[in-house]
Prior knowledge:
Chain A is an all-alpha fold. Helix content of chain A is 82%, strand content 0%. In chain B, helix 3 crosses helix 4, helix 3 (96-107) packs parallel to helix 5 (140-151) and helix 7 (198-204) packs across helix 8 (238-252).
Amino acid sequence: xxxxxxxxxxxxxxxxxxxxxxxxxxxxxxxxxxxxxxxxxxxxxxxxxxxxxxxxxxxxxxxxxxxxxxxxxxxxxxxxxxxxxxxxxxxxxxxxxxxxxxxxxxxxxxxxxxxxxxxxxxxxxxxxxxxxxxxxxxxxxxxxxxxxxxxxxxxxxxxxxxxxxxxxxxxxxxxxxxxxxxxxxxxxxxxxxxxxxxxxxxxxxxxxxxxxxxxxxxxxxxxxxxxxxxxxxxxxxxxxxxxxxxxxxxxxxxx
Amino acid sequence: xxxxxxxxxxxxxxxxxxxxxxxxxxxxxxxxxxxxxxxxxxxxxxxxxxxxxxxxxxxxxxxxxxxxxxxxxxxxxxxxxxxxxxxxxxxxxxxxxxxxxxxxxxxxxxxxxxxxxxxxxxxxxxxxxxxxxxxxxxxxxxxxxxxxxxxxxxxxxxxxxxxxxxxxxxxxxxxxxxxxxxxxxxxxxxxxxxxxxxxxxxxxxxxxxxxxxxxxxxxxxxxxxxxxxxxxxxxxxxxxxxxxxxxxxxxxxxxxxxxxxxxxxx
Lengths: 255, 266
C-alpha cells in the first residue's frame, strides 16, 4: 500500500504536467485558430496515430529493426576489436584517436555514400551506418576497460605468476564489463537516432524518418506528427533498454 | 638457509640515459625464517624497490636475490610469497570469499579445497561472517585484513607488505599491527614490511632496516629487543622508546638535504 502511494506521488507530477501541456497545446490551437501546417492539435495527431496505426507499426518495425541489428552487430564487432586493440598496444595508439575523433563528427552523413553501394531498396546501408556509430562508441569504452586496470591488481597478478589468459579472464574482462554497460547506454539512443536520420538520405521510403518527411511534403501534417510520436516511442524503448543496462551495471557494482 | 638473501644488489632505472636514477646501490641483506623485518626511510630511498626485487616484480641491474633458497623468479613462479599493498586491491566483482580463493584458483586447486582454505583464512583474520559480502561493504581495516588473508591463503612462508596500513587511521592502524603479529605468530610466516612510520616499524619488527636515498642504500640496522610477546603495554615500555630513538637517529644521520626530496618511492 505504502509503495503504491509512493509510486503515485512520484509519477503524479509528471502526469499532471503532461496533461496540462497537452491541454494548453490543444486549447492554443483552437483558440488562436492555428493552421494545421503551423501546428496540429494533439487530438488530431492522436486520431491519425490510431487510424494509421498499422502503417506506423510497419514503419516503426523497419526503423527499429535497422537500429537493433546495427546496435547488436556494432556491439559484437566493437567488443571483438577492443580485445584485439588491448592485445596490440600499437594498434590502440593508432585507432583510439581516430575513434574519439569520429565520435565528434556526424559520421551518419556517410550513409549517402553507402546508399550508392547497394540497391535502392536495400536496408543494408542504414544498418551499416548504425553499426559504425555503435562500433566506435563500444570500441573506445571497452578497450579502455580492458587496458586500464589498477597497478595494484597488475602487480598482484604478476606476484601470482598468472598467465596472460588468466589475467584477461579474471581481471581485464570483469574490469571492462561496467565500461561495456556505459557504452551501451550511449550507443542505444545513438543507434535509434542514426536509424531515423539515415532515412533522410535516400533509399526506400519505408521507415519512420522517411514517412515523416514524405507526409510533410504532402502537407499531411497531422500524419507526420503521428509518425513523430511513433519515433519518440521507439526512442523511448531504446532508452529504456539502456536504463535497464545501467541498472544491471549498478547491481554489479552497487556502490 | 635464509628466507631472503640479497647480495650486492643494485637497481637503476633508465639505465645509461641522462635521467638514470640509482634506486639501489650495492645492497645486501639476509632475512632469517620467522623473522619480522621492516624497511624504513624517506621517499626515494628504494625501500619499495627492494621489496619489488624480492617479489621479482622488478629485476635487479646487478647482484643476486634469493628467496627460500631459489632465484627470485623461481620463487615467484612457485608462489613462495604472498603480497599486500597500501591499497587492499580486492576485486570489487568478487565476494570476500572469492577474493581469498583467487591465488588458489590460479594454482589450480579444486573447489572444495579452495573453500575450506578460504574458511580457514577468514577464521584467522576473524571475519568469518563476511564471506559473502563484497569488498565495498567492508571498512578499510576489514578490507586490509581480507587482503592479508588472501596473501596468506596459499600458506606461503614469506609475506611481503608495502605500507599496508598507510591508508588507515591511527586507531585502526594500531589494532591491525596487533592483528598482524598474532597472525604471523600463528602461521610462523616471515615478513618483510615497508613503512613510513617509526613506531610501527619498531612495534612489529625483530630488526628495523634504515635506508637512505640517492643512491638507495642501507645505512643502519636496529635490533629491537621487545621479546616475542608484544601487547598494547609494549608501546609504553622503555625498550620501545629506546628502539624508536635508535631508528630516528639512524634516519637523522643522513644528510638533511636528502630527506623529503625524493620524487617517488621506487
